[in-house]
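hiii, so i know i said id send this last week but things got crazy w the move. better late than never?? heres the sequnce for the chain we talked about at the cafe, plus the structure i predicted for it. fair warning i was half asleep when i ran it
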Amino acid sequence: MAAKGTEKVKNVVLVGQGGVGKTMLAEAMLHLTGRTTRLGGHAGTKPTLDYDGEEGERGFSISTSIAPIIWEGTRLNVLDAPCYPDFVGDAYAAMSACETALFMVDAASGPGTITTRLWYAAEEQSLARAIFVNRIDRPDADFDVAMSALQDRFGNSLAPVTIPMGSGEAFKGIIDVVHMKARHLENGKPVVEDVPAEFADAAEAARAQLTELVVEADDEVMMKYLEGEEVTQDELEGLLAKAIRDRVFVPVFAGSCVREEGVISFMDAAVAWFPTMADFGRIPLVNGEQLDISEDDERPVVFAFKSLNDPQNGRLSFLKVLAGTVTPGMELTNARTRKSERLGHLYQMCGKETTDVQSAAAGDIVVIPKLEAMTGDTLSVTGKVEAAEFRFPNSLYRIAIEPDARGTEGKLYAFLEKSADADPTLKVERDEDTGQTVISAIGEAQVSVLLDRLEDRAGITAHTVALKIPYRETIRRVASAQGRHKKQTGGAGQYGDCWLRIEPNPGAGYEFVDEVVGGHIPRGFIPAIDKGVQETMREGVLAGYPMIDVKCAVYEGSYHPVDSNEMAFKTAARIGFQKAVSQAEPVLLEPMAHLRITVPESYAGSVMGDVSASRGRVEGMEAGTGAAAGETTISATVPYAEVTDYATRLRSLSRGTGEFEMEVSGYEQVPHDIQQRLAEDYAARRAAGEK
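okay and structure toks below
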């Protein structure tokens, strides 16, 4: 059964650099609370949470899993979020359903770039934050160095609530500096003892640092502390929850998840100090108003923070209950679609295992099959409540996809659309300019997983191909030419003759003018000439790309009373137009990408150098302020052909710390050498009978 009441449920998302033990912490919690009989994912045991075959093959989490932990009468819904760069969108979604973000950090390597990125995302969503420094038992672990790195990166509001007793092979447990007790496991059983003398000074120093930060949560206690009075144990413990909730203090835990040391202390602290949804009081709505969180409000409101297409269970929607209580069979209205949706089964999930529940109260998380709701949707009785959207990372890695076998295009596109419906960081579109099916994702690995699932679940194989660049052709000067088509084959012949004058028409597109006088070309054939010119412009003359910004006038010609027809004049127009273009200084234009690139200032030089090397130009720089202090935003314009892979390139240039926005608009003339190469390629394809 679902835990009743918001005070019984706390939602914690595990985030941080990939491979630092987030999943292992959740597995340890499941084991220590008796949900599993062995520590999953260790010493050959099968993990409970990383159950997807793709996760096993790749060695990292791809999708958010839930570990419902019951501890000391409270449910901790622990969301194990993937933090590999290409799948970090799931972490953003999981944050939207939680009150606290726990950042896992390696005791040897310290906070990584993804940790920093997600730290500010949690700040943007006003989440309480905590840190678990893992792998204290590593030979090169150093808790003090890790703490120093964390404070340098995230400020001085951080302080340990547990510290390790030793490190590396000498690590033998942790000291709870709030209660001044040493804790470790002995044969899997928790042992609580007095602080050993050798660690007494370190424990006292940590407690003093902790006290100094926590008293900031209460003016009265802080004044008492500043006046030299001692803060009592009850006061200290009473202020911890407020300090964490008000985000004036970030607790830091130490331990080893593989050895399960420090995990019980963390669970005790989460139950005692981490906030519930009710502690935040209100939830922002899209209309600028706020939804009051009240235990007395029985009107159910749920928020879909994730969708999943499961091979066994079909479409699953992960919902957080924002208000009231939901039960199976209840009908709620989707604020986006205005359609009523029936809640069938309510599941609690632990990894891939589902358990039916008969109700879920405000603050809890449930999974419901076969809903049409998409990620970010809000459902309520009236359909008038809509929670504010959360921000996903930009999906700027773009690649084209083609099926391996003809005739499977429809099935391919249907699978891609279904996948995009479930994952807001994945987009699929048909590029009308190039005729390609284009995927927009966060990175290459995300596309690779998509292709593997396409084969496993839809029985279709496909491959990626480079994006085609939508070049354009135009002219730079005025030219005239005659187009004459004459054909006699024994019966009725064909005859068409027209003189065309073309000239540049910058920014005004295509324009056709009839200047024929004296009836040299009957009026009925003029539209055929216009059509012939337009067809030729669509196919291109120089390198096979559509032409733009050309004004064409037909001003002279002749006809045959028997052999002239629309087809003959259309063909004549094509001939004349091609001749005129060859004399009008044809040029190739390329689309331009306007970039706003944000990176730590230490990488700004490398980014600007890359822009210059990519035929681009830097147009401005802006130093970040506030939370963005230390970052630089660079505005630049670069040929689109040079930045189709920019998501991958920027990740390399900035070691994963950079972000960018891109808008493709406007055309500029390509350099002569590139125009010549593209024209030669086009001529070679035509000679080979290709388009």
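btw The radius of gyration is 33 Å. thought thatd interest u
miss u guys!!
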